[in-house]
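User: Show me an example of a complex going from sequences to structure tokens.

Assistant: Sure. Here are the input components:
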Amino acid sequence: MATEVSRPTSRRAPRQQIGLIEWLRKNLFSTWYNVIITVVLLYIVAQTVISFVSWVVTAPGWPAAFTNIKLLLTWTYPVDQLWRPQAAMALVLLLLGLSSGLWGGIARMVAWGAAAISVVIGLAAFTFPDLPDQTSLPGWLFMFLCAVLLAGGDLLARRLGQKLRWPLIVAWLLSYPAVILILRGGLGLPVVETKLWGGLMLTLILAISGIVLSFPLGVLLALGRRSSLPVIRTFCVLYIELIRGVPLVTVLFMGALLLPLFLPGGESIDALVRATIAVTLFSAAYLAENVRGGLQAIPKGQVEAARALGLNVFQTTLLITLPQALRAVVPVLVGQFIALFKDTSLVVIIGLVDLLGAAQNIVGQPQWLGTPGGVWRETFLVIAAIYWVFSFTMSRISKRIEDQIARSRH
Amino acid sequence: MSGNSSNEPIIICENVNKWYGNFHALKDVSLRVKRGEVVVICGPSGSGKSTFIRTINRLEEHQEGRIIVDGIEMTSDIRNIDAIRREVGMVFQQFNLFPHLTVLQNITLAPIWVRKKTRKEAEAKAFELLERVGIREQAHKYPGQLSGGQQQRVAIARALAMEPRIMLFDEPTSALDPEMVKEVLDVMKTLARSGMTMLCVTHEMGFAREVADRIVFMDQGQIVEEGTPDQFFSNPRNERTRLFLSQIL
């Protein structure tokens, strides 16, 4: 005999929102000892914030960073040639603006962020006109121009649409040699030796070169380590384990001191090139291990399915395993790129003056000797903020990529 | 080569032997499959049935014996292996769809890269196949967004997109919820009736009885019995087969 089961009609989940006061009472003031802990901690936090803010307002050393902004940004790059870093930056921002209009997504997020920062810096520079301006194009005007390029590129690309796709990809590929050409000179432009480069410009060039060059190298090493050919596998394992076994400083020193010994005829390679090679070789070894981790996480069935469909080994790697492996390790890779960006500050020890090196030099300038307590706190806080902006941008990009991948899963 | 008279077997396996270390996984397995024939391979787990069909497209390497697929002998020459794989489609127990590609991309990938079709041709064919397996509207979703039964139907469409002469099924319904087994079996039945040569490792005896031309029973790496479904179910000769049937029917 069948019994009828009573079926409840579906209804809404009960509301679980609670008010602020209720939340405070429940989480911070529930018992007498929680009240004490909350009050004591609040007092400590408030004291810290108040004393930090009052220090920021009264600190005498801020002019050190701002009057030396040219040194922080480009170090000893010739004053009459400063339009060139500006042109290089304008070029990259224009491409970023165009990408934002064409692809949206991550490019748009970065472009809008950059435009906002440009406007803020431009306004700040405009408000304090007594800052030393050594460029023919005033700094504040240039920053507004950057914002205009970003926004204009975005609008232009939206109008042109998909026919811009391939030209833009080619332009991005050419942008790296173009930027180097603009900065270094040649082809009619007066040459500016790299030993005059420095500051944020040098930090960015090193970091971007390191990231762009170490990525393909690291992927190849990761694939090589899983190769069935013993010679390739052994070489990759040796390389990876050797590099991972020594600190970056050692690799930099080897690049700076040992490499010239092995080269014929006292031929000296540019110090910046040597540093770039060292950073790239170092980063590639770590990258290879991260990518290998991603490759190992891919089920064997994926390769079997690809092979059963007739895809060859090369196609299987390029279309099936590598894309999945790279997606899986995006957070790790971006983390590594952030580390690489900050690690470039180690080039100070081989005589290059990056952002950190420029700051150290500014702190030692004689005119700040009379400032009580020195100017190092203020100066280093400024460059910390610069490092943070770039690192934070990278971590946001990573978050966006992860979100996109997660969306395609469900 | 291909296109011989229809009496010529399309798959010839002669005394195929395979070892995993010291374990003798396939013992003198010989089987001939005619064009358009549907052969179901069954047997207890560990009997070597999956290993056997995986040697036919070289996902497992055999160490002794000969395998000739559509006139091409399987050797370690990579060109022969690739030529055979283009003619043989495979459907796996775990679907093995590519999770980073949409359904449509899963299906068009091999035709574009291996058969060198244009994207347009490949997509037209893909939509036709999706129509056939009844999930055209899911073309732009990712595999992770589909049910198991839908994923397996996509996997069948993906294999068919290469226009293979032979389809291998390796326990295609074993990882599915009971509710979804039927939708996959229906697709397979239609395929069998359309004249496709099929080799299916499966425990679905209803399917075997309905569409198989021949049933092969394997145990401990050997073929112990083969025959038409009628002979096999009503009058099994081997003691081991009788035991197996009594347990699963």
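The lines above are the inputs; the final block is the predicted structure for all two components together. Residues 178-193 of chain B form the longest helix (16 residues).
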